[in-house]
Amino acid sequence: MKKEIKTAIIIEATPGRVWEVLTGFQQYPKWNPFIKSVQGTVKTGEKIVVRLEPPGAKGMTFKPKVLAFETNREFRWIGSLIFPGLFDGEHRFELIDNGNGTTTFIQAEKFKGILVRMLSKMLDGSTLNGFRAMNEQLKIEAEK
């Protein structure tokens, strides 16, 4: 089974400023209500360590592989629960320059695997709420 959740927000800041906040991983504990930490060498092909704490749900630490890390444009990873095919998620952060000093920030994830149906309610609840909460806080931080 497959499923995608997707959120978007307009931020009154340039893609460069949004990228600066998004990739300032050492500051995540201070402002990010969803992703508490990103550790490791963040570049295409590398594995990193990510700690997620969705609102109202149990947190988890996992080691996704970075698929894209394009300055001011996109940060994307893929991770698996226990082993590939059980519950895989391709997480994407995309920055779109609106040409007027604002940025459309998209946070999305495509899920696939045999546990997707069973975890669908959680994805539509706490995970989606985590995306929205992070987007709102990213907006606040980038607009400072």
Notes on the protein architecture:
The protein contains three helices and eight strands, in the order βααβββββββα. It is globular, with a radius of gyration of 15 Å. α1 (15-22) packs across α3. It is 27% helix and 38% strand. A five-stranded antiparallel beta sheet has the order 1-8-7-6-5, with helices on one face. Strands 2-3-4 form a three-stranded antiparallel beta sheet, with no helix packed on it.
Which key features would you list for this structure?
3 helices; five-stranded antiparallel β-sheet; 144 residues; globular; alpha+beta
Number of helices: 3
Give the ordered list of helices and strands.
EHHEEEEEEEH
Number of strands: 8
- The helix-and-strand class reads alpha+beta
Sheet bearing the most strands, described? Answer: 5 strands, antiparallel
Please list the strands of the largest sheet in the order they lie side by side.
1-8-7-6-5
In short, what is this structure?
The protein is 27% helix and 38% strand.
Give the arrangement of secondary structure elements.
Layout: E1 2-11, H1 15-22, H2 28-31, E2 35-39, E3 49-52, E4 60-62, E5 65-70, E6 74-80, E7 88-97, E8 103-112, H3 116-142
Antiparallel strand pairs: 1-8, 2-3, 3-4, 5-6, 6-7, 7-8
